[in-house]
């Protein structure tokens, strides 16, 4: 089964393994060598468990549990791989241990997405949107008696119940499939051996090992942060409303939390060092920022926190600095939420013992088959360097890897045209290239950008909603007419984007979209009627307006405007 050739004449070596005295062993490749080592262990273990073996050696052998595949991490990717491989008959083990956050928050099986990410975030986003819809309904004829108030405790209880039901469901699925689950912290002893760091001194031996440990929030660089601040690991489990809250960061986590917290009545301030949503389409990132401001989120741009201090009555004194003029100030908050990035949980794995060296950012480099530098050890999900940090990506990667390991398929994961959505009050769904990426990879002269501002029909009777509340954009490569970027800023962004993502992955053309018939009157059909093209080269005035929105320092702004004028005069179109 493991590729070992056993000749007729045998002898037994000191390890208890049967080997040939005549056959010279050829030097195998690295993968073959590792698998041979695993096979030798299996034979040795079986011999040690025979009657007559000294008690100490027998006890040592009993502490070892061997598996075809062992998964470190019980998040979306790890669970998907384990369940898929078990369906094909593999012997699977899985270890998952949640180290409490600095505030002491912990949770059950399922990983970040289920417990402190996608699921609770989206449920609270829905709750906040429901309150906003109640206000809209006044102008649609519904009488809403009294002042609308939100009950944080009620919302949190219902969200927690749903999460715990998912935790329980995952455990029952593992039991049903015969997957052995360990609520333990696994670390490497050698490339095929893991310690579960328990009192029983349990050792795991596995032919293939999957690292799917994910990321945790970063607290570094701000004095007092670990002691006083919370992160997304804690927010969804708070027993009471966070009250007056400061959110630090410009990531999608920061913007999403700012949106739903403001909509449930929290006094919300967002502190951003530079720009919103780095790496995303910046035109829509700015729209999100403006929309958050309309939802009563106070935004401090070009500002950084310097220190968090404990104040009276449980409040937090935040000292901060403006990067515009270097002035310092302070303000009191009830809660401070950090959303300044995440780092992989690889420090405690003892990867050196497995022959793996993490990248400087702590992540693991993998090839197109998800293999690390040690071929039988794989990394999937957020811990894999350079891969999208998205739950559906981890799930699909895990399933495909399980099929390849079990010899059922050779299909590799494709990372092209992966859709996603930012769940701010107005949702932003996208797939493919941002405008900045398209200009960089394809070039201005080979791009056509179609756009439209629109107001959804369901908002038509709501006077507070503007005609240009929502926006859609398609980025088309001219020479092929293929759509390379899809961007939708409007209601139900995730639902709209999911359908169109299939069309992008099939490399459909703008002509094919134009020939399609939309469903009247839907927001999604806006994407099929885009006629107005957008000029990519801006005038000096447009450049000045753009730069005023992205909050850069005055010297940089002056330089950028003068350089834009120079480029326009010289007709440097590719600038």
What does this structure look like?
It is a single chain. The chain contains 16 helices and 23 strands. The chain has helices spanning 30-48, 55-62, 76-87, 111-116, 118-137, 152-176, 225-228, 232-235, 252-263, 282-294, 391-405, 435-441, 493-505, 510-515, 540-549, 554-570, and strands at residues 11-12, 18-19, 64-72, 92-95, 180-182, 187-190, 193-195, 203-211, 215-217, 245-248, 268-272, 298-301, 303-310, 316-322, 328-333, 335-338, 342-344, 377-379, 420-422, 427-432, 447-454, 470-477, 482-490. The strands form six sheets. Strands 3, 4, 5, 6, 7, 8 and 18 form a seven-stranded mixed β-sheet that branches. The protein has a five-stranded antiparallel β-sheet with strand order 19-20-23-22-21, with helices on both faces. A four-stranded parallel β-sheet has the order 12-11-10-16, covered by helices on one side. Helix 15 (540-549) packs antiparallel against helix 16 (554-570). The chain is globular and about 70 Å long.
Brief synopsis:
Strand 7 and strand 8 form a beta hairpin. This protein is α/β, with parallel strands linked by helices. The strands form 6 sheets. Strands 3, 4, 5, 6, 7, 8 and 18 form a 7-stranded mixed beta sheet that branches. Strands 19-20-23-22-21 form a 5-stranded antiparallel beta sheet, with helices on both faces.
């Amino acid at each position: 089964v493991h590729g070992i050739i056993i000749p007729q004449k045998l002898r037994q070596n000191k390890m208890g393994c049967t080997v040939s005295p005549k056959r010279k062993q050829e030097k195998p490749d690295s993968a073959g060598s590792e698998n041979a080592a695993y096979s030798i262990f299996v034979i040795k273990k079986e011999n040690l468990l025979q009657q007559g073996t000294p008690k100490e050696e027998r006890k040592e052998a009993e502490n070892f549990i061997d598996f075809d595949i062992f998964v470190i991490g019980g998040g979306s990717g790890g669970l998907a791989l384990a369940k898929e491989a078990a369906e094909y008959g593999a012997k699977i083990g899985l270890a998952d241990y949640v180290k409490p956050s600095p505030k002491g928050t912990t949770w059950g099986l399922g990983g970040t997405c289920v417990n402190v990410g996608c699921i609770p975030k989206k449920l609270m986003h829905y709750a906040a949107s429901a309150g906003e819809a109640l206000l809209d309904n006044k102008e649609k004829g519904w009488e809403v008696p009294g002042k609308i108030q939100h009950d944080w405790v009620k919302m949190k209880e219902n969200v927690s119940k749903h999460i715990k039901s998912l935790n329980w469901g995952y455990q029952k699925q593992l039991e049903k499939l015969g997957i052995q689950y360990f609520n333990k912290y696994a670390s490497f002893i050698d490339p095929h051996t893991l310690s579960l760091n328990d009192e029983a001194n349990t050792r795991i031996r596995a032919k293939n090992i999957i690292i799917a440990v994910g990321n945790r929030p970063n607290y570094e660089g701000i004095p007092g942060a670990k002691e006083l601040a919370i992160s997304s690991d804690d927010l969804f489990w708070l027993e009471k409303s966070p009250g007056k809250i400061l959110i630090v960061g410009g990531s999608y986590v920061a913007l999403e939390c700012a949106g739903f917290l403001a909509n449930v009545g929290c006094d919300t301030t967002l502190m951003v060092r530079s720009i919103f949503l780095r790496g995303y389409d910046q035109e829509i990132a700015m729209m999100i920022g403006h929309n958050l401001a309309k939802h009563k989120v106070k935004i401090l741009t070009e500002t950084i926190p310097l220190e968090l201090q404990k104040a009276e009555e449980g409040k937090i004194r935040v000292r901060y600095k403006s990067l515009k003029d270097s002035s310092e100030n302070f303000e009191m908050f009830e809660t401070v939420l950090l959303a300044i990035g995440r780092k992989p949980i690889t420090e405690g794995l003892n990867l050196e013992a497995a022959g793996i060296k993490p990248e400087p950012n702590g992540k693991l480099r993998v090839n197109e088959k998800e293999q690390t530098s040690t071929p039988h050890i794989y990394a999937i999900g957020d811990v894999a360097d350079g891969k999208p940090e998205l739950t559906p990506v981890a799930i699909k990667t895990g399933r495909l890897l399980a099929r390849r390991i079990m010899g059922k398929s050779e299909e590799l994961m494709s990372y092209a045209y992966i859709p996603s959505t930012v769940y701010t009050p107005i949702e932003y769904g996208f797939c493919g290239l941002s405008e900045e990426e398209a200009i960089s990879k394809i070039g201005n002269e080979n791009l056509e950008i179609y756009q439209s501002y629109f107001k959804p029909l369901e908002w038509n009777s709501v006077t507070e909603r503007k005609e240009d509340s929502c926006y859609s954009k398609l980025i088309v490569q001219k020479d092929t007419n293929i759509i390379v970027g899809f961007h939708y800023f409007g209601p139900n962004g995730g639902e709209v984007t999911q359908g169109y993502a299939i069309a992008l992955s099939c490399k459909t053309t703008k002509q094919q979209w134009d020939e399609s018939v939309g469903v009247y009157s839907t927001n999604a059909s806006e994407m099929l009627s885009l006629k107005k093209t957008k000029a990519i080269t801006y005038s000096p005035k447009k450049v000045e307006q753009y730069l005023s929105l992205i909050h850069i320092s005055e010297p940089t702004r002056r330089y950028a405007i003068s350089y834009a004028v120079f480029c326009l005069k010289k007709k440097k179109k590719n600038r």
